[in-house]
Amino acid sequence: MLLKYIHAFKDIIYPPLCFACERKIQEGYLCPECQDKVEYLFPPLCRLCSRPLSYKNSYLCSGCIGKKSPFKRVISITAYKEPMTKLLHLFKYKNYDYLGRFLSHLMIQHIERIGLDLSCYQAIIPVPLHPFRRKERGYNQTELLAKQIANHFQIPLRNDIIYQKKDKTSQTKLKKEQREKAMQGVFIAKESLKGKNIVLIDDILTTGSTLKECALTLKKRNTKDIIAITLSKTLS
Ligand SMILES: [Zn+2]
Ligand SMILES: [Zn+2]
Predict the structure, then answer these.
(1) What is the Cα 168 distance to its own chain's centre?
(2) Separation of 37 CA from ligand 1 center, angstroms?
């Protein structure tokens, strides 16, 4: 009871603010306007990079046709623009780890909305951070997303399979081809995944080179199908 009053009092002195535009809100994380601005990605999308397609019966975008991919499918949930850019910045770099619950909820809702069936997958794996980065940040934001998704769909979370050996943060300015080359050997997978179907989780899909290298590392451990789900995707 006392706690309830303390919370009510706190809301008068510090009313909750929208995380994107800082307007006062009644509850939650976003004001209704910012909530409406979240751009969810609906099919038809390219099956390998989630780029919106203009023709309903197309499967791949022009950039993915004829290219080899370790993925059965790559699904991004939202476009990487406001308010997602702000939320992800806070989530990744400003210690707002508790935004993980809200952001994973957006992912879960959309997975269900588009009818993506995850029942044939045996493990959910977050893209790992280098141990140094993880220590510096105190958490791996992708793991926080993966954990909630794994709980919701009752699929084991496996954050003990793949590790990052080399720090890759200095590669952000490289071009796509250079970046893919620089990524080679960044990850190591520690156990056999023979015949297993895997869901890889990441926060933002930009060039896709990190996700791809992760999937290639898992493939070496004899996985069956790998799909990737990312919270956001840069669209250009
Ligand atoms: Zn707002
Ligand atoms: Zn594509």
Answers:
(1) 18
(2) 9
